[in-house]
Amino acid sequence: MKALVYHGPGSKAWEDVPDPHIKAPTDAVVKVDTTTICGTDLHILKGDVPSVAEGRILGHEGVGTIVEVGASVQNHKVGDRVIIACISSCRVCVYCRSGNPSHCLADEGTSGLGWILGHLIDGTQAELVRIPFADSSLYALPEGVPDEAAILLSDILPTGFEMGVQYGAVKPGDTVAVVGAGPVGLAVMATAGLYGAAQVIAIDLDENRIEKARSVGATHGVSAGAADWKDQVLALTDGYGVDVAVEAVGIPATFRMCTDMVRPGGHVANVGVHGHPVELPLQDLWIANLTITTGLVNTTTLAMLLKLVKQEKLPVEAFVTHRFGFDQVLDAYATFGDAAATKALKVAIG
Ligand code: NAD
Ligand code: ZN
């Protein structure tokens, strides 16, 4: 088959690789119908994620059709169309049972850092992908849910909801500011309303992304490049600061923006993947009684979010802006990587 292979920082190629096969009775092999690119793939290609080995097939989001199942798979059969969770997990080990399946301990040499597709095991930017623990890591795709909506459930909708809204402890009436209106930031904005946020402020350098944000639930937009960005945010909160600030970029400057604009007693939920250390001025954070959270998505809310997508209760249609064939995957990366010029958000591939 063909797959997109990582060859170290800055280097990737769409090339021939051996087809994946069932290795354990709990595996399935899925023909990828639609995959996409995430900001995390760009971090990997920049060299920000050194745990990704050279030779790894990239990609952790996908919708596909099962072509082979292991002997003990019960929930799925050949021919089923499924959503692939970005992290496979056994759902029985101590970390899975304590709500952190992204740290699944079931062993295949991944030493307790889970089964992250396109990172610690081969991923979905390929014609075929092997999925460990298929029963708990694949989700039946309901009739009527298009691939362009389903693909958001592999990673970004659960990430935005779990790591932004739930870790940020959004409550009814809250003002939530989201720095970074890329797909992940937009997923936070699209799901903040589930817990009753009263105001959702989208903050980005790119005006086009702020405009997009308004179509998925942001009530206000602030340009991160404006000298008075913080005054604009404070003006929306009677001068107190936001209840929840969500970092969805992954650089020290935007983390700092979050701690700067949150009210005393508020929450900063870091979602971005950081390639460099962030300064933590505890002398200021301590006295502000802040709660700071961060984490890797667990995908434990995928099934719940899928129900809402099926009922058209989440604004998912704004996300996928471009579609490419597998043989155009390098063009897809170029388009996704230059969003300011191309206005790309999520690019569907397949
Ligand atoms: P993206 O690159 O598409 O979007 C980032 C956005 O940030 C862009 O709109 C960009 O214009 C904006 N931005 C850049 N610099 C800025 C600045 N100084 N101020 C304000 N805005 C700025 O990325 P994405 O796919 O939306 O992912 C966002 C982050 O979430 C990435 O770091 C990604 O790795 C991370 N992520 C984390 C998890 C997790 O499990 N925690 C899962 C998936 C993605
Ligand atoms: Zn587990």
Automatic annotation (TrEMBL):
Keywords tagged on the record: Metal-binding, Oxidoreductase, Zinc
Endpoints of the signal sequence: none
InterPro entries, A to Z: ADH-like_C, ADH-like_N, ADH_Zn_CS, ER, GroES-like_sf, NAD(P)-bd_dom_sf
A molecular function GO annotation: zinc ion binding
SMART domains with a match to the protein in the record: PKS_ER (SM00829)
Pfam families (alphabetical): ADH_N, ADH_zinc_N
Domain Enoyl reductase (ER): 8-349
Cofactor(s) the protein requires to work: Zn(2+)
Recorded family membership: Belongs to the zinc-containing alcohol dehydrogenase family.
Name under which the protein is recorded: Alcohol dehydrogenase
